[in-house]
Amino acid sequence: MSEDASPRNTNNPLIVIGDRIEAKTHLVALLQLLRTENGLLPEEDQIQYAVCKDSTQVALALRRYLNTVKMILLGPDLIGNSITVARMLSKKAKIVVVIDPQKKPLSIDAELAQAIQKNLDQLGVVVSTVSEATGHFFAPIVRDYVVDGMSVGIDLERMTPEERGRMIDARLDAANTFPSLPETQRKVAELDDLDPPKQWAEAIDPDVPTRTVILRLLNSARYGFRSRVETIEQAVALASARTIREIVTACQMRQILQNTNETTLDQYWRHSLATAFFTKLFALPANPDQQSAQQKSELERFQLEEEQLSTLRKAELWTRLDLNGTEDTFTAGLLHDIGKITMIMCLEDSLQLVSTLIESEAEEARESDQLWAHSTIEIERFLMQDIDHQVIGSRLAQKWEMSPEVIQVIGQHHEITDHSPALLKLVALANLAGNCLFPYPGEQHHPLPVLFERIDAAIKKMGATPSDRTVEEALSGDIGQALDGVVDRLNVPPCLWALIDRREFFKVCYLMAPKVKSTAIAFLQQTG
Ligand SMILES: [Fe+2]
Ligand SMILES: [Fe+2]
């Protein structure tokens, strides 16, 4: 059997074969069929195929051959999770999964295997066993989807929101895999800020890990309470209900993350915390005469130097954003990318596919001596068409009955317009700032930390220390131009720059970054 890993003509219809190529009956049958079909087709319509041995190569083949991929065969020897690949790519090309029930059944649990089969049926994915995958089996699929170019796409315009939600859930197999809302989170969400501390204690006390973290954090130097906080009742009385809510949310999320074995979760958590603290910091008035007592103590926790405070005062983000001070800033920042983690939970291995494309694009950028800059959401949409981490995250947030403001942040933080509410614009800015410190995923390729390193080096070269003036100077030359290019390619909504000049914004981020980083790391250490 001949192997054709890179098709000669990139305009011809293409079948991606995800399997190990050897004389297996289903492969022989498919290739024989292709030979027969090609005998009848003019050269420009002849069907080509590309062989991929693992799921990440399937993603790369899709990227490389864009719209010519008409069918993807996921065979029994594909390295990676073929069910995830089928779910992810089911609206991209016709997917045929061929399984070997002896070696690798859909699941060893018969009931679960049936549920997976039903779910794949719903998505239009064809599943066959090796012995049934004959030429007769492949012929109608190849004719309809490869020769005649029948579409597997979806017409989103014609769907009601409910239909769309159901379809997304089917692709995520959400009913089985969405994490449930943690109990303490639910109880605390039901409490009113003014409810007596005793009631708060009743909600939190049974959850010993969360209780321990709250007391540990409030007794740390950063919170600066003079007497020791021994009980949740004292904690609620001393700190605000809002502070307690924030810590509870962080603890509950952390617990969910710890239940998975994804290796990049720490990166994810650092990104979320950095974004949460930037969200909080940008929303706080830095002018003492505009601060409430609560805002004053929240700002003090960042331990900013006088010079940093003066930069914040000049930038006046809290005024420019027109915030009213009641927004749930920390939670919105912390949860904005919850869809990324949900995607990993619902589509095992999906991050690998996204990361592979990030790496391959970063590699190409390096070769042409450029900084890689592509938003993750575009890569997700490239692979999954109608699903991205915003869509997945807002499905989860709706199931968890989170506040409409937080649901909106989770679902729209990459789609800011002039009319977006202040909280959404704030989180979009804080997310950019968070990416300067801890991007996720693709930490090693993200251009913003690289640009920050260049600013470090430029200031060192001046023999100076970071300040308003030196950062401005560093940003006035090549580094500023590179930054402009990166921001453009990251598709940052331009209306954000109507709020604040973008170089000024990155100057603020750069000067605040060390304190936000130490605040996030301290919080991370205290919360486990
Ligand atoms: Fe995001
Ligand atoms: Fe983010």
Q: What's the arrangement of secondary structure elements?
A:
Elements: E1 14-18, H1 25-40, E2 48-52, H2 55-65, E3 69-74, H3 82-89, E4 94-99, H4 110-122, E5 126-129, H5 135-147, H6 161-172, H7 174-177, H8 183-189, H9 197-204, H10 208-218, H11 232-238, H12 241-258, H13 265-283, H14 293-300, H15 306-315, H16 317-320, H17 329-335, H18 338-346, H19 350-367, H20 376-384, H21 389-399, H22 404-412, H23 422-437, H24 447-461, H25 468-475, H26 478-489, H27 496-499, H28 502-527
Parallel strand pairs: 1-2, 1-3, 3-4, 4-5
Helix pairs in contact: 1-5, 2-19, 8-12, 9-11, 10-12, 13-17, 13-23, 13-28, 15-28, 17-22, 18-21, 21-22, 24-26, 25-28
The structure holds fe (ii) ion (2 copies).
One fe (ii) ion (FE2) binds at residues 271, 275, 336-337, 431.
Summarize the structure.
With 528 residues, the chain is mainly alpha-helical. The protein is built from 28 helices and five strands.
Provide a descriptive summary of the structure in words:
The protein has 528 residues and is mainly α. 59% of the residues lie in helices and 5% in strands. It contains 28 helices and 5 strands. It has helices at residues 25-40, 55-65, 82-89, 110-122, 135-147, 161-172, 174-177, 183-189, 197-204, 208-218, 232-238, 241-258, 265-283, 293-300, 306-315, 317-320, 329-335, 338-346, 350-367, 376-384, 389-399, 404-412, 422-437, 447-461, 468-475, 478-489, 496-499, 502-527, and strands spanning 14-18, 48-52, 69-74, 94-99, 126-129. The chain has a 5-stranded parallel beta sheet with strand order 2-1-3-4-5, sandwiched between helices. Helix 1 (25-40) links the parallel strand 1 (14-18) and strand 2 (48-52). Helix 2 crosses helix 19 (350-367). Bound molecules: fe (ii) ion (2 copies).
